[in-house]
From TrEMBL:
Species of origin: Sparus aurata
A molecular function GO annotation: calcium ion binding
GO cellular component terms attached to this protein's record: extracellular region
SUPFAM superfamilies, sorted: EGF/Laminin, Growth factor receptor domain
InterPro entries linked: EGF, EGF-like_Ca-bd_dom, EGF-type_Asp/Asn_hydroxyl_site, EGF_Ca-bd_CS, Growth_fac_rcpt_cys_sf, MSP1_EGF_1, NELL2-like_EGF, Nephronectin_domain
Signal peptide region: none
Subcellular location(s) per record: Secreted
Keywords: Disulfide bond, EGF-like domain, Glycoprotein, Repeat, Secreted, Signal
Phylogenetic lineage: Eukaryota, Metazoa, Chordata, Craniata, Vertebrata
Gene3D superfamilies in the record: Laminin
Name of the protein this chain belongs to: EGF-like domain-containing protein
Matching Pfam families: EGF_3, EGF_CA, EGF_MSP1_1
Domain EGF-like: 9-48, 49-90, 91-133, 134-175, 176-215, 216-254, 255-295, 296-334
One BP annotation, GO: epithelial cell differentiation
Length: 355
């Protein structure tokens, strides 16, 4: 005879002694399961602690620390520079904002590295013992870092270059300012001369300053010319002129030898004689100067007579001739002078006597 009976599952997990310590009871239909808690393993009817530190290869757990087993778990004893979150060793960031102010020395930057940190000096500083000291770039043994025509100014951790007065900074160097480009730099009567880093206002050549104006300099007061030359003053200058009969630029003068330089300086019957700055023409004997001409002298017309009284005078160009008359013989003087003719009888007597 079949009877309709309802069977109800028994929840064994309500009984405290159902599962071993360090396990969790899970009820099932008509039974139950005992699941060991994390960190434990089932050994027979027991849940035994797992020694995680021994079960893993060295270094798999607690990198940068030491693994220590605990009931149902483990914990890490971390090396210096690391902190434990329980099951791992985390790097301590010494450079975090909360620690940075006290970790590194002034003028350095904190750089975190695993388990530690570094404090390299900032650019422009160098490590001297435990301090970061400023590098004076302006006294570098290899030379100043600034360009020519500028001054180097050291600052904490850096430097700056300042161009000298009269120079403008460019992308690479200091460029001279041409103050003379501005027409108002100097007075209207002055000349502006640009100089490296400066300029100069001066009177033009041939002028000098008097009562804040430029006046002409009379160079001829202390003549720069040759002693024989004449100095002519001009506005802002002067000129030198050699006198007539001299050649040169005025700073030197040399006598012109007209007797050589001129083709026919004198009359054909005259001789040329050079003199300083000029020349003279001297007529040949037998000629007389009449202006630029040399005219023949008629010696036969001279009052004192040029021939012997017994001779006749014949004029010719540049001279004359005396011819003894009949009964007279010429002496060796050939008629020159008053003793140029002798009586023929006296002449014969004189010849006979000598024989």
């Amino acid at each position: 005879m079949w009877m309709n009976v309802n069977c109800e599952d028994i929840n064994e997990c309500l009984l405290n002694s159902t599962c071993p310590e360090h396990s969790t009871c899970i009820n099932t239909n008509g039974s139950r399961l005992c699941i060991c808690d994390g960190g434990f393993s089932s050994v027979g009817d027991l849940c035994v602690d797992i020694d995680e530190c021994a079960a893993m290869e060295p270094g798999e757990l607690c990198t940068n620390g030491t693994c220590t087993n605990a009931i149902g778990s483990y914990y890490c004893e971390c090396f210096k520079g690391f902190w434990s979150n329980g099951t791992d060793c985390m790097d301590v960031d010494e450079c975090s904002d909360s620690l940075n102010s006290s970790v590194c020395q002034p003028h350095s930057t904190c750089i975190n590295i695993p388990g530690s940190y570094r404090c390299p000096c900032n650019e422009g500083f160098f490590l001297n013992g435990t301090e970061c000291q400023d590098v004076d770039e302006c006294h570098d043994p290899d030379g100043t870092p600034c360009p020519e025509n500028s001054s180097c100014n050291n600052t904490a951790g850096s430097f700056f270059c300042l161009c000298y007065p009269g120079y403008n900074p460019t992308s690479l160097d200091c460029e001279d300012i041409d103050e003379c480009k501005d027409n108002t730099t100097c007075r209207f009567d002055q000349v502006c001369t640009n100089l490296p880093g400066a300029y100069n206002c001066s009177c033009p050549l041939g002028y000098h300053e008097e009562n804040q104006i430029c006046v002409d300099t009379s160079e001829c007061e202390d003549s720069p010319c040759h002693p024989l030359a004449r100095c002519w003053n001009t506005p802002g200058s002067f000129s030198c002129h050699c006198p007539l009969g001299f050649a040169g630029n005025g700073s030197w003068c040399k006598d012109v030898d007209e007797c050589v330089a001129l083709t026919k300086p004198c009359h054909p019957q005259a001789r040329c004689h050079n003199t300083p700055g000029s020349f003279v023409c001297v007529c040949n004997p037998g000629f007389v100067s009449v202006g630029p001409l040399c005219v023949d002298v008629d010696e036969c017309q001279q009052a004192d007579g040029q021939c012997h009284s017994a001779a006749s005078c014949s004029n010719h160009v540049g001279g004359f001739k005396c011819s003894c008359g009949h009964g007279w013989n010429a002496t060796k003087h050939n008629g020159r002078g008053k003793g140029g003719c002798v009586d023929l009888d006296d002449f014969l007597f004189f010849v006979a006597k000598e024989q």
